[in-house]
Design a protein that fits this description.
Pfam family, one: Aminotran_1_2
Radius of gyration: 22 Å
Number of helices: 12
Subunit structure: Homodimer.
EC number: 2.6.1.57
Cofactor: pyridoxal 5'-phosphate
Structural class: alpha/beta
Catalytic activity: an aromatic L-alpha-amino acid + 2-oxoglutarate = an aromatic oxo-acid + L-glutamate
Bound molecules: pyridoxal-5'-phosphate
Strand content: 5-15%
Shape: globular
């Protein structure tokens, strides 16, 4: 008889999936809070500097009164509101724990070991992570010299094993965009059994009229899915709610693979209240876009060359000077997001934060 003390102790703990080996870990933006109590602004996570839109906090607090209950698993209220807002059938909507949660479900639903997922690179840091977790093979395709998606190269990277393609538009972290004609040409050329995900997390900040709204592109394309979030323009990053618009087979698959009850009632109700607060939203987005334009112009005047951003951040390609630059910004009280050896992404924040950043950038430039 085997006693407890004789039970063999596993040498290496539980066996974990091989696919997880060497997985890149998602690096969250550093929290604000300078050394020695110095003021610090967090411009490292593309968050919205404004508090929740009018009425949203009250709605969320009311929802907090039912925290003993599970949320509505189907997000019926939010789905109905979104269907009306975008003029799409409710069956074409699927919600999730942030758009990154939906992106993960999309990969789960389409790709596994032996399959390939194509995306431009550098782009949103979560793509390689969620692809690797799925066991599929990531196929990153370098951006062009101008830091724009190279759609021709991405098309050339499609094989019979490709199951999904992410097109991040505007692209994180470069803020660059692909325009209507080139995107339509690309979508027409991609095989119809490959899902193309248009990740439009920053769409509200776009001012270039040639950048298409993915919702128009998906309508007659069953293999196109649009990904949106309440985390950026709507300022609900902390509540974790995002959604996809896709034809029924894809939207159904998302409902099958979503984490049950993932979107809290608080998040659902706050999202609905935010959608109903559109005038205030537009005002805030316009103010952030104006700040983006001011920051870009000031950087250009300082002598920096940077790609035009259509998002709520700017991108400075600094190469080997990236970490030094980020350290100089931190010393000035601004936390930015460095990608060592490549560049720095800086979120457009409140005016005071942007001014601090511009001051640090100017000082750094003078020291070059
Ligand atoms: C391109 C892109 N997609 C998706 C997300 C995920 O946002 P969330 O999960 O908060 O909706 C982000 C966040 O930074 C992003 O930059």
């Amino acid at each position: 008889m085997t006693t407890v003390s004789e039970t063999p102790v596993p040498q290496h703990g539980p066996r974990l999936r091989e696919a997880l080996r060497g997985i890149p870990t998602y690096k969250p933006g550093k929290p604000a809070g300078g050394a020695d109590g110095a003021p610090a602004f967090k411009l490292s996570s593309n968050e919205n500097p404004y508090p929740p839109l009018p009425g949203v906090l009250e709605t969320a607090l009311a929802a907090a009164g039912t925290l003993n209950r599970y949320p509505d698993m189907g997000c019926a209220g939010l789905v109905a509101e979104l269907a009306q807002r975008y003029g799409v059938p409710e069956s074409h909507l699927a919600t999730g724990t942030g758009s990154v949660g939906v992106a993960q479900s999309l990969v789960h639903a389409t790709a596994g070991p032996g399959d390939e997922v194509v995306y431009g690179w550098r782009s949103f840091e979560a793509y390689p992570i969620i692809v690797q977790i799925s066991g599929a093979t990531a196929v990153p395709v370098p951006l062009t010299e101008g830091d724009v998606h190279d759609l021709d190269a991405m098309l050339a990277a499609v094989t019979e094993r490709t199951r999904l393609i992410f097109v991040c538009n505007p692209n994180n972290p470069t803020g660059t965009v692909v325009r209507r004609a080139e995107l339509e040409r690309f979508l027409d050329a991609v095989p119809s059994d490959v899902l193309v995900v248009l990740d439009e997390a920053y769409t509200e900040f776009v001012r270039d009229p040639e950048v298409p709204d993915g919702v128009e592109l998906y309508r007659d394309r069953p293999n196109v899915c649009v990904l949106r979030t309440f985390s950026k323009a709507y300022g609900l990053a902390g509540l974790r709610v995002g959604f996809a618009i896709a034809h029924e087979p894809v939207a159904n698959a998302l409902r099958q693979t979503a984490v049950p009850f993932g979107v809290s009632q608080l998040a659902q109700d706050a999202a609905v209240a935010s959608l109903r607060s559109e005038p205030a939203l537009l005002e805030r987005v316009a103010a952030l876009v104006a700040e983006r334009d001011r920051v870009e112009a000031a950087l250009a005047a300082q002598g920096w060359t940077l790609p035009a951003s259509q998002a709520n951040f700017v991108w400075l390609r600094l190469g080997e000077r990236t970490t030094d630059f980020a350290a100089a910004c931190a010393a000035a009280g601004v936390i930015v997001r460095p990608f060592a050896g490549e560049g720095v992404r800086v979120t457009i924040g409140e005016v005071e934060a942007n001014d601090l950043f511009l001051g640090a950038a100017e000082l750094f430039r003078k020291g070059l």
